[in-house]
Prior knowledge:
- The chain is 34% helix and 16% strand.
- By secondary structure, the chain is of the alpha/beta class.
- The protein has helices spanning 22-35, 59-69, 80-83, 89-99, 111-114, 123-127, 143-146, 148-152, 186-195; strands at 9-15, 39-44, 75-78, 104-110, 132-135, 174-177.
- The chain has one domain: 3-Layer(aba) Sandwich (Rossmann fold).
- The model is unreliable at 188-192 (pLDDT under 50).
- The N and C termini lie far apart (32 Å).
- It has nine helices and six strands, in the order βαβαβααβααβααβα.
- The protein has a six-stranded parallel beta sheet with strand order 3-2-1-4-5-6.
- It comes from Hoeflea halophila.
Amino acid sequence: MPHVERGMTVGLFGGSFNPPHQGHQLVAEIALRRLGLDQLWWMVTPGNPLKSHNDLAGLGERVELSRRMAPGPKVKITAFEAAHDLHYTAQTLAFVKLRNPGIHFVWIMGADNLRQFHKWQDWRAIAETFPIAVIDRPGSTLAYLSSKMAKAFSHARVDENHAALLPFLRAPAWTFIHGPRSSLSSSAIRSARATNKPARS
Length: 201
């Protein structure tokens, strides 16, 4: 787990990153800038319980590719979930909170995940552990209006003009941040590789 000092603001950006791409890089850059973060933990997970693992690259490979993609020294690439046998986001956030008192954390996720967020294990507990910043992704801009999570926690939504306050708010609190978007996706890249065609950005 990356080193932090009390009072820091830290974004938690988790995923299988199979493979990492410029869309992930863009989400990290937007989160760092709009939330005013001291660090962003790019957390490479052992796997994704909602996805098939048939084409999952090795953890070491995904970590190394993520290091090459990291946009600057504030982004810390880590795979601590594998070392601590953490398989679900709710488990990870509870673990992080327990181990890091005095740190202001924000969960970062792309808007494409918001549509299925209610399928994640203990999704309400996730929303009630740390504030959440949802970063816009192609085809998912309206997810902040239509998703089950957005409706369930509509009372806790923060205007994106006040996004920099999010790390200091008590959960549940979330915001949707618009900005530049990349149409790249890990699944499209894997499919393109399988057919020897370039993935479109």
